Amino acid sequence: MKEHGSFEVIGETLDDAAGEAYDKVARTMGLPYPGGPHIDRLAHEGEPTIKLPRAWLEEGSYHFSFSGLKSAVINTLHNASQKGETIAPENLAASFSSKRH
């Protein structure tokens, strides 16, 4: 905030909104709407064991991209399903929510 009533945008999402990504991932995981609280609850029970791209783009930037992260989670779920494998939902939620990608 520069002064009262005057703001400067220092970063933004370049594609999907964060909430949209959470809701679509939650829907794919079979979680209710809105997805954010359900993913966060599960994430506290799991470990970030699944390698996913990160939403934060680069050091020194405040821009984010949630589309690639969202797509990676959805593809991970679909690929596991096609192979007859299951992914622990708490680990997927923790991996999706993790800052350490």
From TrEMBL:
Keyword Iron appears in the UniProt entry: yes
Positions of the Gcp-like domain: 2-98
Keywords: Iron
Keyword set includes Iron: yes
Record's protein name: Gcp-like domain-containing protein
